[in-house]
Amino acid sequence: MKKVIASIALVTLVLASTTQVAFAAAEESLNIEKAAIKAVENSQPLKTVNQQAEVIQKNYVSVKGQMNQTKYLLPYSNSYSLVKAIILYPLQLKSALEQVNNTQVVVTNAIRMGAYSGYIELLKADYALNTQSELMNSLYEDYKKARLQKEQSMLTDAQLRLAEIAYEQTRYNYLNAQNSKDSAKMALNNMMKEDIAKQYAVLQDNNIKPSAQVRALDDYVQQARTNRAEVLNAQSTLDILEEQYRLGIAEIPTDYEFYKQQQEYEIAKAGNDLELARISVQQNVTDLYAGLESSMKKMEAMSYLADQAEQNYQAAQIRYENSEITFIELNKIKVAKAQADINLKNAELDAWLMQAMMESACGAGFQP
Description:
Elements: H1 2-24, H2 32-41, H3 44-70, H4 80-151, H5 157-191, H6 217-227, H7 229-250, H8 256-321, H9 327-361
């Protein structure tokens, strides 16, 4: 009875796999950049930021035009306030526009990193599924061989049971991998605002290769302190306050000392905010670097273990062919090799993602 059930289960899985492949063949391929572009295009938070940028852009153009027109009144006016307004108002709106544009970049990066992470999870599940599928088919063939040997009194009941358990465990892992892939696919489709049931014929990963080396921490920190949006925004705020103070003090306000103290306080506060932004960026990059180093070390370790597993498997095959070990012992090594391959692939994908996150963190950033 168990033989019949096992055979039916295999046929069902084969038919299901064939159906899935036939259905997927009609669907498009997907790569990580395509996923990111779709996620960005359909992001509601980004659309909201874009609308804010459009409003500020229109206001900036309008005020700049008005101030240009106002310049023609200067020969007929003795108002320093008018001069200050012509210089300061466009600068203030330009600063506001630059800051909202920086926010656009950061939000875009955040969405992109989210899509990258989702695609990486899908690739992990897909690789695990393919590996477990190959292993399951191989162990099923071994299980059939074991049943024949048992009928010929070449194996004991216990040995046959071990072969059956190995196959059933791998089939269980295969089904888990299928569930993981389905979940990852639905999550990514949802992020891209696609039908969550949408299938893909090919998941491309040819451009997802982690670099073998990473730069020194100081290089990343210096780059981030120059490029991060929060630093640029804080610097812009400080620049506007200093210009406002310079123009205001030249006007010699009635409450000169109070004005001077107030403006100097605001400038000092903005200077502190700028320094705090730089410190925060440095801490953020330092934390990311710890994760980056960890991922690189793990990739190196998994590569070593995968090589060892491959060598063990090659040696075990030779020993099996020389009748030094049973196919059950060979299967244990085969399972270990498959898991080592999965672990290495996961480590490589994690390392690539950490490298991508670090590069984004050294640009405008990706944390709104």
